[in-house]
Amino acid sequence: MTKREKLFLISAIAIQSCDQAPGRCRDEIYVVGHQVNSSLPAADREGLIEALINQVRYGQSLPVVAEVLPIKK
């Protein structure tokens, strides 16, 4: 498989898994996603994908706290 094909499959699986997960994403997550895609180099984005996959597979989700952290715009 090409790198593009692998990334497509990651995306397709993630979209399906997200649709099946309960709840919704906070608005801040969309902002963070845009910041990650617009400012991180490709190697760092791939490392972040790996870290997030490991957290989904092996980690536990933390409750959302009421504190709002500043987001760089």
Describe what this molecule looks like in 3D:
This protein is mainly α and 73 residues long. It is built from three helices and no strands. It starts with a helix and ends in a 15-residue tail after the last helix.
Q: Write down the secondary-structure element order.
A: HHH
Q: Can you give the helix content as a percent range? A: 55-70%
Q: What is the general shape?
A: globular
Q: Tell me the fraction of residues in β-strands, as a range.
A: under 5%
Count every helix, treating DSSP H or I runs of 4 or more residues as helices. Answer: 3
What does the radius of gyration come to?
14 Å
> Could you tell me the mean pLDDT?
89
End-to-end gap: 37 Å
Number of strands: 0
Given as residue ranges, the uncertain stretches (5+ residues, pLDDT < 50) are none
User: Given the helix and strand composition, which structural class is it?
Assistant: mainly alpha
Q: What's the main sheet like?
A: none
Question: Key terms for this structure?
Answer:
single chain, 73 residues, 3 helices, globular
Please render the helix and strand layout as text.
Elements: H1 3-20, H2 27-39, H3 42-58
Brief sketch in words of this structure:
Helices cover 66% and strands 0% of the residues. With 73 residues, it is an all-alpha fold. The termini are far apart.
